[in-house]
Prior knowledge:
This protein is mainly alpha-helical. The chain is built from 20 helices and no strands.
Amino acid sequence: MLALLGIVTIAVLLAAILSKRLSPLVALIIVPVAASLIGGFGLQTSKFVIDGLKSLAPVVGMFVFAILYFGTITDAGTLDPIIDRILRAVGTRPTRIVVGTTLLALLIHLDGSGAVCFLVTIPAMLPLYDRLNMDRRVLAAAASIAAGINFLPWTGPMIRASASLHLPISALFNPLIPIQGIGLVFVFGTAWWLGRREEKRLGLSKMGGSIPMPTREVTPEQQALRRPKLFWFNIVLTIIVLGTMVVMGEKVPPALMFMVGLCIALIVNYPDVEMQRKRIEAHARAALMMAGILLAAGAFTGIMQGSGMLKAMAQAAVSFVPQGMAGQIPVVLGLVSMPLSMLFDPDSFYFGVLPVIAEVASQLGVPAVHVGQAALLGQMTTGFPVSPLTPATFLVVGLCGIDLADHQKFTFPLLFGASIVMTIACVVLGIFPL
Length: 434
């Protein structure tokens, strides 16, 4: 009964969001609360919600202050010279811009944090896309596929898989090194294709690959906020904030770094208290909207976990695996691992679903390491930038200023394609024996 209720809950949630009948914030709250009450959990629902909110509190804090921080240094004009240099490097060809976006996102995501990747990449590249009237969904897709292809040893899914299956990370990751290389080829090929498609859409394909360099349009109000003399100070401050997060992420909470960074940026760039207040007010709307959606996502995951619906769905799914399909479990899991990101949050899948699948596979003679590797090909790796269960998805759409449904419809096939290509590569290279 719980498994059926969970499936219906997620189906209704996705249908409501994708059809745009409900906003993500409303759907993430109303649908799971109604499901919990229907399931007979009554006042326990409030405990589930609070537990979910508590688990997301540090993430919400980081996102809110990150938006305020990057908004402040953008107002100060810190990104203006960087954007101009990127423009000169990639030119004004959409193909080069999309490939450049992918490369930038890939490099930034080396620390394993999707949030940091999107917070740095999207604000830096968005003005380029807007100047050329490029589709913002392309920016979201390029950043997403670059981050999604990364399952390095220090990323969340890899660590969870290793812990849940009690396997060394090297046993999971080392055989997948050539697979990640193949995935990167697919990612950059996709970026090039997206750029070419944009050139054709904008009518640039017959212009010899060049259009006039777009001019910067800065209003008098924006010019009054620029602090060109503080460019290097803001750059060093940003490097310190992000570098500390990467090097000391376990000891120093990211939320604290953005809090301190915001305070320093405001004091140095805008010493006047009234200007500080106006800068916060200017970006408070975006920060509040993001915080609201993230907290709503926390309520959703809290109810799904606390009620046991996620665990029940996992057990029911495993019971449908035919014995004759045992040898194909890794291949099948590799093919469906990316879509499963739409149904399970990373903790629920890797600590609730994956051990059950691995146990069933082991009893049928399939090594657990193959099951773990199959999951890593898509479950919250290529799948996390479009999953409604991860805050990063809402960060992408919020920073790009696009609708969640539009982002999912546009980017889902690309991420799914990357997962399929890597799964096929595992079969061809003998990592998954048939």
